[in-house]
Design goal:
transmembrane, mainly alpha, membrane, Gluconate transporter
């Protein structure tokens, strides 16, 4: 089959996905599965191989992500219910002062969202915005945009977030470099898209205060200290860094090397952090076993749909790879002279705009560019830089087909036009800034 036909198959598949989700209102999981089958048939893949490829894509994606999602969801929920996240946000506000509260909220979103899903982080932290707005009498837009920017930057670029973890795993990137380049992308991106853009756009868009505020379960006198709360949030990051240290400092093949690799694996890091949160925080602060169990169960309930849609995205990615659609499109871009870092950003942005999900955009882009990347002999650091480029492209130009678009509107009371002016522009600034950092890192490594 010709390259042009394969490329048209890829474009048609994404267009069909958009039609099924937005017009036919079909659930994203079912739509992704149907489009995956259609892409396989249209690309000339043998019918007997389509089902095996779909199974391979689902297993390859969820085999890693399911553990991270489940443990991360419980970890983040316990941190909220015990007041650990509230302590971090409160200390930041006291340090920054009310006049710079929008900077404090951006930093709070960036730090507190590390162990959380984007949606979960917003649900747990949005109350801080309203509390500060009531205290200062400020415009909700000026405070909400920085918080959303901080959470979005953390979710897109920083380990141990599920999407960056998934990207690093699929791209076989170096986790240590992923942390370094992710931080270099997330911090300036958050500042530009959050406090600075939020201050500007709040002059043109104004929103009233909603009434609902979520509160932690523990009373303030039972909450952990700020130092312990921050240490617990950063703990899995430190453990993940052990893997990178081991690869550079320990002798390959030695017992120390293998132990550091094991300790620094994301599974080990998040499991250890979750256990410390349960027994070193929740239980010690007076929560009984039944209460902890209810918190963990509540955290896992919304994770199921996230896993299914993400797994379906992995199915779509695998069909694109095995059918030859991915290699054809990736090679066509590289053959046209488009730099690989720019191609990663552009492809992720295109898929994101068409179908909405940042995670699916990342997975689809990996499927499109991985065949070409594998022939280039890139280092783990360079693959980390390309992962950041993909992550940046996957969050630009959010609109009505993205759940985050509606989440912003739901919590802030913004209508669609106001959400486009605030949330959509914020996401575009953040994603573009992060991708530019990734491109610069790729050029220097």
């Amino acid at each position: 089959m010709s390259i042009a036909t394969l490329v048209l198959t890829a474009l048609g598949s994404v267009a069909l996905l958009l039609l099924l989700v937005m017009k036919a209102r079909l659930h994203a999981f079912i739509a992704l599965m149907l489009v995956s089958i259609g892409a396989g048939v249209a690309s000339g893949m043998p019918v007997e191989k389509i089902a095996d490829t779909m199974q391979k894509g689902m297993a390859g994606t969820l085999g890693f992500l399911a553990v991270v999602v489940a443990l991360g969801a419980m970890f983040g929920k316990i941190l909220h219910e015990t007041g650990a996240l509230d302590q971090i946000a409160g200390r930041l506000l006291s340090r920054f002062g009310e006049r710079r509260a929008h900077y404090a909220l951006g930093v709070a979103g960036l730090v507190c969202a590390l162990p959380l899903f984007f949606d979960v982080a917003i649900v747990l932290l949005i109350g801080v915005v309203f509390a500060v707005a009531r205290r200062t009498g400020g415009n909700v837009v000026k405070l909400a945009v920085p918080l959303f920017a901080g959470v979005a930057a953390s979710a897109a670029f920083l380990l141990p977030g599920p999407t960056p973890m998934l990207l690093a795993s699929q791209m076989q990137a170096d986790f240590g470099w992923m942390i370094v380049i992710g931080l270099a992308a997330a911090i300036p991106g958050m500042l530009l898209a959050g406090p600075l853009f939020g201050s500007f756009i709040s002059r043109h868009v104004s929103l009233a205060l909603p009434d609902d505020i979520s509160e932690p379960t523990l009373k303030r006198d039972r909450m952990p200290s700020f130092a312990f709360s921050l240490t617990l949030v950063l703990f899995p990051l430190v453990m993940v860094a052990c893997k990178t240290l081991g690869s550079h400092l320990a002798t390959p093949g030695s017992a120390v090397f293998h132990w550091l690799q094991f300790i620094g694996h994301p599974f080990s890091a998040i499991l250890a952090a979750c256990l410390i949160a349960i027994y070193g925080l929740a239980v010690r602060r007076g929560m009984d076993a039944e209460q902890v169990m209810r918190i963990c169960n509540a955290a896992l309930q919304p994770a199921g749909i996230i896993l299914l849609v993400t797994g379906a995205g992995g199915v779509f990615k695998q069909v694109l790879v095995d059918s030859g659609v991915g290699p054809a499109l990736g090679n066509a871009l590289i053959g046209a002279g488009l730099p690989i870092a720019v191609a990663c950003f552009a492809l992720a942005a295109a898929v994101r705009i068409i179908q909405g999900s940042a995670t699916v955009a990342c997975l689809t882009t990996v499927g499109l560019v991985l065949p070409a990347i594998e022939t280039m002999g890139l280092s783990g650091a360079q693959l980390a830089a390309l992962s950041i480029c993909i992550a940046g492209g996957s969050i630009v130009l959010s609109h009505v087909n993205d759940s985050g678009f509606w989440l912003f509107g739901k919590f802030t009371g913004a209508n669609e036009a106001q959400t486009l002016k605030t949330w959509s522009l914020m996401e575009t600034i953040l994603g573009t800034t992060g991708a530019l950092v990734g491109m610069a890192a790729f050029a220097m490594l």
